[in-house]
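# nightly structure sweep
# worker-07 picked up a monomer target from the shared queue
# config: single-sequence mode, recycle default, output format = structure tokens
# input follows
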Amino acid sequence: MRIIRQLVNIRHITGILGLSFILTMPVALAADIEAGVAAYNAGNYDRAVQEFRPLAEAGVAEAQFGLGILYTEGTGVPRDQKQAIKWISLAAEQGHALAQLSLGVKYAFGEGVRQDYQRAYQWASLSQMKGFEVADELMRTMEAKMSKADIARARQMAQACLDSGYKNC
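# output follows
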């Protein structure tokens, strides 16, 4: 689980998402996201918040995830798990694989939400379906704590979420 916690950290955004998400964005938007990540990595958390917040409010999943991580850590903003869940959930519900994994971790540990292994498995499964293979570790950890019926229900929940375009999660 330590690897999962390390990966769900904004310092890894550029390495994990790399050019794949940047190439799909308009140039100005990608530059703003990169500026937020660079500010975070330089320890300039106030600047990271300034870069991410307007984009997050405009519905940009990468910025929503970044802002959620800042609230999780209490860097540049007061530590606030409710705000972290809000922003990470918004990104996850847009299909952002790292946000989905992060939300799974939050449910697994009860960070800002009621601990719920089925929800943890659901979100990890959605992340894994998008090709984020590190989610397998969280899924295996949750499987060890769940009954077969709970696992089956979590898989159904993930499929319903996916089938609804993330509206029924």
